[in-house]
């Protein structure tokens, strides 16, 4: 019998345009072949330039940067995928890559992941472990949550939160001040009468009765809020169950994410023995906890728990009813898996939530968490935290910096700690890069013109400083700027 013929994925048999002559037009939505060079256009400064490299994958890599409009990302993603699916999948991973593996562009990665789910759902679901390696495990429930709710659910929530803060703060105060200016003495006189009337009414009612009435009112409001919250949670759970039951692609992704968490948690429990704890993955840290927002919205904890404690493997669950089984395995996930793994991982968040500031292991705090929490550490555990920073300076302790970009460290130097943490994280980043090599015959040239204001300016300055520190003499510590 003759050996079967290897044919590979179907995409490799589709005709592709030659790289040098492929023309990509953003706006028309199609890639066309032509014998002419890529079209020419102008930069913002009216300089002549090519509008495309001729390679849709290269265009995607070059043009997709933070805050790129989602329409542009989707269009370039489609063209790149048509050109080379495997390379495009690698570029999507590169979008998310942290710790030197990519652009660390979380929002564009989420948009690309949602596009994958819509057009190639199995490609997304079967590469979850790779995506988690490039980013972190929390990306997986976040992708599922955005698919379940909507792609812009976080943007909407942020704008609503900002509006609420604005309503409580300055704008309302300014409005009130404006009224005082307009009405003047008349407004103050009316306000005074209202206050006096209120005081006279209160004086007629004994204090004990007023306190009791107020407590009853607070109790009623709490009960109403609790009832509303319970109704909202039930409606959310019904919606999540309906989507899981109806949408096969969503269910497949839900199951794959649950399987991956269950596998990593199961292996983590096996490594709880002394000497093996370093093998425990961070899946335990980022696994949604019982009654968390992810659990309430997408019912992820039950799915993970069912895979860890299946009826087939645990005979004590084989005869009990379904609702009781779901409750017991969820509770077992929390008590027997997440709690012991969190304890071994020494997560700073566990100590912070319990207000055990004096026991926080600062050498275990991740780079982003250190940047975000440093002022809180100074406020609640000032002496120990300063001692830790002094130990880092002396080389007796280490500080994490791997997940931060250079310009993020530079920007954090203006925070309330006086830039101490930023200085140490910058030094750690430079030391880590120097171990990989230095730059010879190199000098950084930075554009600090007005066109580069904002984040672009911060990026150029940070990269210029970094290159100058990595350069060998005579260019070490030197930067050329131009305007």
UniProtKB/TrEMBL annotation:
Residues 1-40 are annotated as: Disordered. Residues 31-40 have a biased composition (Polar residues). The keyword Coiled coil applies. It comes from Ilex paraguariensis (yerba mate). Residues 208-238 form a coiled coil. This is Uncharacterized protein. The keyword Signal does not apply. Keywords: Coiled coil. Residues 441-482 form the DUF7788 domain. Transmembrane segments: none annotated. Residues 43-439 form the DUF2828 domain.
